[in-house]
Design a protein that fits this description.
single chain, about 450 residues, alpha/beta, 8-stranded mixed beta sheet, 5-stranded parallel beta sheet, 20 strands, binds zinc ion
Length: about 450
């Protein structure tokens, strides 16, 4: 029984909102886009029949329109801005954006205000997520107090708090001090928590706003060299090798990082890595307009980087897709490029980008999408209940994709409170139609359910 395996292998999550009592019939869906459409019966939040008759009586019925059924997506890297910048995103609006994007669990980074460096702040975020009941919102604890890079936080206290923090990161900043990073790895070891590194050697990126290359030179922008990322990836690979705890690399952006990951994995070093949709398909050519919407950290790089990242995601050198969803208000984005805050929205466009780039083009199938956007992220974060096989007895964390629905991305139409999408006006050919969190329909026909909070 799957629950038993999960109990033995995975640390618990915090207290979950109760699933709706009763039955839900999800009709006419094709698991992983394969075979004839089936009807899925869900009882009290659990899948109980994958071959239900079309006329099975149920309290609620949702039409799948022969869409592709996948496990609910899991995003290891988002910024939901609460507490501190609720003017740009809240747990409730971020949860709605996640549900619309097909996600049933996301990890929200620690660079809030105040910083998530104590149990009480993480617990507040966890509980708000459960109250909204549109997506499981897992707070990421910071590695250092106030993200100051000086003193480690209490991993143990946050891991054992009601939020059950299972990932720690100073994302937005790098843990630049190698000795402190060594201590963090030693501390994390044995507690089964994951450290996620934002790889950026700060001495190499002072004042940098764009990828260091021809484009930045032409535009007169200060360059962010590949070596600033790669030197930290290499350093952390060696620390992970010698001090034996796994390290996750946030938003890999360069060809050299791919080479280093290949080497580290070949050595058996416990490392994993993510790539964002924007680093897979956008390059620094976008900067020619000086539009602040294209400023992001790490910066958009060159075509050879995007090609290497795509290949690495296909061959498993990079494990997962993560959005780095980073909402900003127009006062922080519609300004001179150098003054724009780095970051882009991602939750509502990621599935479409991955589907168009890899499935529509014939490079991969829907099982692979399930792997890189749901199964592997849940495995890496040791998250029970998500990224599970489509099987009887599993929690009904699901999404349905319409693989033939053409749509155009518009920031103003997004569920997110912010509008800073670099994909404005882009046309995509697959869309999430339905998302289900433990038997509760959190989005249907592209419309998120109202937040329960
Ligand atoms: Zn980052």
């Amino acid at each position: 029984m799957s629950e038993k395996i999960q109990e033995a292998d995975f640390p618990a999550t915090g207290p979950l909102a109760a699933p709706p009592a009763g039955t839900l019939l999800l009709s006419n869906v094709r698991p992983y886009g394969e075979g004839d459409p089936i009807n899925v019966l869900i009882e009290d939040g659990v899948i109980t029949d994958l071959d239900a008759a079309a006329d099975t009586p149920a309290d609620e019925q949702v039409e799948g329109n022969e869409g592709v059924l996948l496990p609910g997506l899991v995003d290891m890297h988002v910024h939901l801005r609460e507490p501190g910048r609720e003017d740009t995103e809240t747990i409730a609006t971020g949860s709605a954006a996640a549900a619309k994007g097909g996600f049933t669990a996301v990890f929200t980074m620690a660079n809030t205000s105040p910083v998530m460096d104590q149990p009480v702040i993480a617990e507040g975020v966890w509980l708000k997520g459960q109250n909204s009941n549109l997506c499981d919102i897992h707070p990421v604890g910071s590695i250092t107090k106030a993200l100051a890079g000086k003193e480690l936080t209490e991993f143990g206290m946050m891991a054992s708090s009601e939020a059950k923090v299972r990932m720690f990161s100073d994302d937005g900043k790098c843990v630049a001090d190698p000795l402190l990073m060594r201590r963090a790895i030693e501390y994390a070891r044995g507690m089964d928590v994951l450290l996620a590194q934002h790889c950026e050697e700060p001495r190499l990126t002072e004042g940098a706003v764009a990828h260091e290359g021809e484009m930045a030179a032409k535009l007169g922008l200060r360059g962010w060299p590949r070596a600033a990322e790669e030197s930290i990836v290499a350093r952390d690979a060696l620390l992970a090798r010698d001090y034996g705890n796994r390290i996750h690399i946030c938003h890999a952006s360069t060809e050299g990082t791919v080479e280093l990951l290949k080497w580290a994995k070949g050595q058996g070093i416990p490392m994993s890595a993510e790539v964002t949709p924007h680093h897979l398909i956008l390059t620094d050519e976008r900067l020619a307009t000086y539009d602040g919407v294209n400023r992001v950290n790490p910066p958009l790089r060159e075509e050879r980087d995007t090609l290497a990242l795509r290949q690495a995601l296909l061959d498993g050198t990079i494990d997962v897709v993560a959005t780095d969803h980073a909402p900003h208000g127009s006062e922080d984005k519609c300004v001179e490029f150098e003054h724009a805050k780095p970051g882009m929205l991602g939750l509502e466009t990621s599935l479409a980008i991955i589907a168009d780039t890899f499935v529509k083009s014939g490079l991969a199938d829907w099982r692979w999408v399930a792997k890189v956007m749901s199964e592997r992220p849940a495995e890496i974060t040791r998250l029970p209940g998500h990224g599970r096989p489509l099987a009887v007895g599993e929690p009904a964390n699901l999404c349905v994709v319409d693989p033939g629905q053409t749509w155009t991305a518009h920031g103003a139409e997004m569920a997110s409170k912010a509008e800073n999408t670099p994909f404005e006006g882009m046309e995509f050919s697959a869309k999430v139609s339905t998302t289900i969190l433990r038997g509760r329909v959190t989005c249907h026909e592209g419309v998120p359910a109202p937040s329960a909070a």
